[in-house]
Design a protein that fits this description.
This protein is α+β, with helices and mostly antiparallel strands. It has helices at 3-18, 24-40, 45-50, 59-70, 77-95, 172-186, 203-209, 240-245, 309-320, 323-333, 347-353, 359-377, 380-389, 402-424, 429-438; strands at residues 100-110, 121-125, 136-148, 155-161, 192-196, 213-217, 224-229, 234-239, 251-259, 262-276, 283-291, 296-302. β3 (136-148) and β4 form a beta hairpin.
């Protein structure tokens, strides 16, 4: 079993986090907690403790150690999050991209059948959908993350779990601004390009993002903007939607779309023009793209000057990287690590148990990052061994993603827990032999 190799890789991966903790015992608990999350694919502490090697301690002792860790007052949640951001800095140093594409995206965590939890909110969930395939309004908590998505291993530069109903909540825009400020603090010397879906189509956010580059999906087509009339040499006010409808196409290219294990080529037509916002006089560029696959029009707002075809295509491709954050959310929530299964009864305990605030939440994010790290940094044959252990069928249709690799890691840690228990407590086979003799 590759226990030694996994432990060494995990300890090296978690080093930026554990270095900030005040004592060695707490440092060891971080690795044990991440192993437990990977083994059981859940943040429930009792389940995490079951996967600890019984030669180290029994389940009750392991559970007590984990409970004390999440309630320990000798360190704050800021140290854990600072360590997670250091992991992101190390990932960027290793891959050293020319600039960082940072996807900003709110996500909603569902608490099923919940009515009386402190601060529980009504949130919008599209995954999984209802029986009609539509999004649902459910009880839960919103969250905000910022993730660098233009690297082999994604890097988290901000994570926060909040409530719409508590006194410390001001607005979702304030949470978005906080994620931007934190990302700038984590990567002060890097060129940043923020990408966001339609939730970022807000003029105040445009001003806040101005020092950096941004690409945001336009949703307010009825907005009045100003466009420069070259013939009359003046700015004229028009509706954004009217300008989009008559944009001239300037380039055409093919792009590959991957969905549900299939890859399809689409023909993309793009055009662009410059606008000015009437109130702030801020100048932006509008990039319009249409594809013949889904028959939809995509409108992007950016402060990047589009003078060349290559620049327009790069903006479009960077915006498409935003979809990677959705895959990370699904891996954290649904059939991956099931972060929504945090079983507490008040918002304060939600925050305490999720790493005071959000300790378990940060541990789940670190566990997910470790799976991505392992996939890219271990030898391919070693990764394939874990995938085969996790149930890889060996068919051409296999999807060699993170889920099957997680199943392999879970099988390793569960096997270690089982074998170590049978060494200490062999199964009483002799009792069955005696009973058979009496028969």
């Amino acid at each position: 079993m590759p226990v030694k190799e996994l432990d060494q890789t995990l300890n090296e991966f978690l080093a930026p986090v554990t270095e900030l903790l005040p004592e060695e015992r707490l440092r060891r608990v971080v690795a044990q907690a991440v192993r437990g999350i990977l083994a059981q694919e859940t943040p429930v502490i009792a389940a995490m403790a079951q996967s600890i090697s019984r030669q180290e301690m029994d389940c009750w002792a392991a559970a007590k150690r984990l409970y004390r860790f999440v309630d320990n007052k000798r360190f704050s949640h800021h140290q854990l999050y600072k360590g997670m951001y250091r992991v992101a800095q190390r990932t960027v140093r290793e891959e050293h991209p020319e600039y960082l594409v940072v996807a900003l995206d709110p996500v909603n965590f569902e608490k099923p059948y919940t009515k009386k939890l402190e601060g529980v909110s009504t949130v919008h969930k599209s995954t999984p959908p209802d029986l009609n395939g539509e999004a649902r309004l459910v009880r839960g908590y919103p969250a905000m993350t910022a993730t660098v998505v233009n690297m082999r291993v994604p890097a988290i530069s901000y994570a926060q779990w909040f409530s719409y109903k508590t006194a410390d909540f001001l607005s979702q825009n304030r949470e978005i601004q906080r994620s931007i400020r934190t990302t700038r603090w984590v990567f002060p010397d890097q060129k940043l390009r923020f990408v966001m879906d339609s939730g970022g189509d807000d003029q105040k956010l445009f001003d806040f993002l101005q020092p950096d580059e941004f690409v945001i999906t336009a949703t307010h087509w009825e907005r009045l903007v100003q466009v420069y009339n070259e013939r009359l040499k003046r700015w004229e006010t028009e509706h954004l939607g009217d300008l989009v409808d008559c944009v001239p196409w300037r380039m055409t290219f093919q792009a590959a779309f991957h969905h549900a294990g299939r890859t399809r080529l689409a023909k993309i037509k793009m055009g662009w023009f410059q606008i000015r916002l009437p109130d702030s006089k801020q100048k932006l560029w509008v990039l319009v793209a249409e594809d013949d696959l889904e028959k939809r029009t995509l409108v992007l707002l950016t402060n990047i000057s589009i003078r060349k075809h290559a620049t327009a295509q790069a903006i479009y491709q960077d915006w498409r990287l935003r979809g990677r954050i959705e895959h990370g959310y699904r891996f954290d929530q649904e059939q991956g690590l099931d972060v929504e299964d945090v079983r507490v009864h008040t918002l304060e305990r939600m925050r305490r148990n999720a790493l005071r605030p959000f300790r378990v939440f940060a541990l789940v994010l670190l566990a997910a990052q470790f799976v991505f790290h392992l996939n890219q940094h271990w030898p391919p044959k070693a990764v394939l061994w874990l995938r085969k252990l996790g149930g890889k069928l060996g068919l051409p249709t296999d999807r060699n993603g993170s889920y099957i690799l997680l199943r392999g890691l879970s099988a390793v840690y569960q096997t270690v827990a089982t074998l170590s228990w049978t060494i200490l407590q062999p199964f009483p086979h002799h009792l069955f032999q005696q009973k058979a003799g009496y028969g």
